[in-house]
Here is the input.
Amino acid sequence: MSVTPGVAVNNVVARPPAEPADGATHRTIPDLPTVLDRDRRAGVERVIELARWIVLVFAAVSVNFPGQNSPHRPEVDLLLGIWTVFTLATTIALLVNRLPTRRLQYAMLALDIAIASCLVYLTGGLNSQLGLVFYLVIIASSLRFGLGGSLLCAVTIAAIYLGTGFLDHETLNAANANLFAERFFLFVVIALISGLLAREMVQNRARQLTHTYELEAVAFNELREVDRIKSDFMMLASHELRTPLTKIKAWVSLMQDAGDRLPASAREEGIRELRSESEHLARLTDNLLAIAQLESGEIRLKTTSCELDAVIGETISRFIESADRSRFQVNVPSDAGQVMADPERLALTLACLIDNALKFSPETEPVTISTRRDGPYVLIGVEDRGRRIPEAEADRVFASFYQVESPLLRQRGGFGVGLYLARQLVERMGGRIWIDNSRVRGNTFVIALPGHV
Here is the structure.
């Protein structure tokens, strides 16, 4: 990527974030080459304008200083006035963020050289104090056009400088030849130094901007992902809350309208449905409340010795309305029956895993909850017979609001927060959780917690 002619920015590679494929309107970040080029051009023009004002003040003071008797003072003052108006116009353009085009930069350089040549000619030729204006022009060319441009400008100015001496009726004697050689050497040295410094400054600035741009691009992608997750969550929330509420409303209306005419079997079925859906709503709200407490840092854990038989039994009882008790197979050996954890939060964690297992397993397949000792830890496994989670998704399923199935195509309920909540709670209790999907069918979610000594 070339930032300026003759000033190459090496080892700077970055890509802007890709546009969303769904055609949605998002705020976009300009591509990096555009950002670098505009920042460089703006900085260069500001430096040149500041230097031009300093030279204008110096020239005006030098020509009009008391004791300076120049026969061409009116012409010099006229040139300085023209240069002042031009500089004021370019300064105002910069203040309103209007940068000069490449052609305009060439024209500005030619005008600067012409005015500097006239000033040097009118104030003494080779011996003029305003010869330093040429140095400014060379430095400006190095900032705008790089090392090659500054060297070409130095050679051009040297030729013009020599021409002004002859126009001022100077003879090419040894003294003038030495003076010209000295000035020519300075022009070339300044062109080389300013060109190399400009290249280094541009590269450093490009690296800084690249780093900043990459950070902004990452933040931009993260914000866009958060926005997508928020939209998915709103869609899921409206669906997940509306479905049980619709069933509850339908059964309540049916019971109310039918009254005593409703058969006893239908009434019992309705009561079971009402209890099942109300417990489903309670689990959803409990999960969301726990997530909110985790995110705000308000959750408090009370670690104590937990009897796993009691915790697992209490957790399974929450699902009796939605699943037959015979579907649950529990195996808790005596040496792996106690862990150090918060009983309430452990029950919530197991509820998330059991709910996930029931959701993704065929209705005729069992869900197995087992424990075993592994050194200082007790491993709690929740095993289902559902579709095996791909290896690439094994860690991502623990992200908040993430589901392997697309939110629009999924056939099972849930917000996608259960596994995220389980991991957060387990880690806060000093344990770990992972997926053992080494089997051909089904998945085993394993929790490792410190065992009771």
User: Anything to note?
Assistant: Residues 2-7+31-222 form one domain. The first helix runs from residue 32 to 64.
